[in-house]
């Protein structure tokens, strides 16, 4: 009887057991990396705390932009940590060893997304609780809706980080993707100026950037007591973008750095 070497699982055939095993491994690694934990959990809270007192002499300013920043800060920190952590796995040879096993790319990406998603839940709870019940962020809508958008934004940052890590050859290059991927969205999302007052080309670009819908969803919670049609549209766009980017991350994941 002839024997055949084991083959890697198909890239788009995720297994629940393999995904959970990958997520557990990532969480064990994070437990021994206090700097990354501090960056993901504490930095968004620290930024919100500082901004609350930066605008202390301008009543109402923190309320008008605090909700938007509550979604933007988690997105940025999760993007940064996820992209570097995934790249570190590849440069150390861990990804190559894992993908030589019966572990598909989709299993790996889903496991990372699940692990960092759990961290994103804690991060969103901390940041939302701080903003609402310590810093006094005044919103009209439900705090649970605010938490939902903050969580989706953090998951979007995780997905973007996993995706861009495939195109970086070093941790320094991974950080360099932030100006290319995050900063244009930050400038065009409507935080600094209403999107409908921008130059038409810039407004059209902002209409296809997921951070624009994240900020719009936060604004809906800030102004409306009930769930609106625009809010549903905005959160669906953010969620779909996160799923699409995760799928692209699985498709572009490489075993090693070239």
Short descriptors:
disordered N terminus; 0% strand; mainly alpha; 258 residues
Per DSSP, the total helix count is 12
| Overall pLDDT | 84
Query: Gyration radius, to the nearest Å?
Result: 19 Å
Helix content: over 70%
End-to-end CA span:
38 Å
Secondary-structure element string? HHHHHHHHHHHH
> Strand pairing plus helix content: what structural class?
mainly alpha
Which sheet architecture does the biggest sheet show?
none
In the predicted model, the low-confidence regions spanning at least 5 consecutive residues are 1-12
- Strand content range: under 5%
Count every beta strand, where a strand is a DSSP E run of 2 or more residues.
0
Shape, please?
A: globular
Number of domains: 1
Overview of the structural elements:
The protein has 258 residues and is an all-alpha fold. It has one domain. Helix content is 72%, strand content 0%. It contains twelve helices and no strands. The protein is globular.
What's a concise summary of this model?
The chain is mainly α and 258 residues long. The chain has 12 helices and no strands. Helix 4 (61-91) runs parallel beside helix 7 and helix 6 packs antiparallel against helix 12 (229-252).
Topology of this structure?
Blueprint: H1 16-31, H2 34-41, H3 43-54, H4 61-91, H5 94-99, H6 105-133, H7 143-164, H8 171-181, H9 183-188, H10 200-206, H11 210-223, H12 229-252
Helix pairs in contact: 1-6, 3-4, 3-6, 4-6, 4-7, 4-8, 4-11, 6-7, 6-12, 7-11, 7-12, 11-12
InterPro entries: ABC-2_transporter_component, ABC2_TM, ABC2_TM_bact-type, ABC_2_transport
Organism: Streptomyces pristinaespiralis (strain ATCC 25486 / DSM 40338 / CBS 914.69 / JCM 4507 / KCC S-0507 / NBRC 13074 / NRRL 2958 / 5647)
Transmembrane segments: 37-55, 67-87, 108-132, 144-167, 174-193, 235-253
């Amino acid at each position: 009887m002839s024997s055949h070497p084991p083959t890697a699982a198909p890239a788009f055939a995720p297994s629940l057991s393999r995904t959970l095993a990958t997520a557990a491994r990532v969480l064990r690694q994070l437990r021994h990396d206090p700097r990354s934990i501090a960056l993901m959990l504490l930095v968004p809270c620290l930024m919100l705390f500082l901004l609350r007192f930066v605008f202390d002499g301008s009543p109402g300013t923190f309320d008008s932009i605090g909700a938007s920043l509550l979604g933007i800060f988690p997105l940025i920190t999760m993007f940064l940590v996820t992209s570097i952590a995934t790249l570190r796995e590849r440069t150390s040879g861990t990804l190559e060893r894992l993908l030589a096993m019966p572990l598909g790319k989709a299993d790996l990406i889903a496991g990372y997304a699940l692990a960092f998603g759990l961290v994103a839940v804690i991060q969103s709870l901390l940041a939302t609780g701080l903003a609402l019940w310590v810093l006094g962020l005044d919103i009209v809508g439900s705090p649970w809706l605010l938490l939902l958008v903050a969580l989706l934004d953090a998951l979007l940052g995780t997905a973007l980080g996993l995706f861009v890590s495939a195109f970086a050859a070093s941790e320094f290059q991974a950080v360099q993707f932030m100006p290319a991927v995050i900063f244009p969205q930050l400038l065009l999302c409507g935080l600094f100026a209403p999107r409908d007052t921008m130059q038409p080309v810039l407004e059209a670009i902002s209409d296809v950037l997921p951070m624009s819908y994240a900020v719009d969803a936060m604004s809906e919670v800030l102004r409306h007591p009930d769930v609106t049609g625009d809010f549903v549209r905005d959160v669906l766009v953010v969620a779909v973008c996160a799923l699409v980017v995760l799928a692209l991350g699985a498709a572009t994941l490489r075993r090693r750095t070239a």
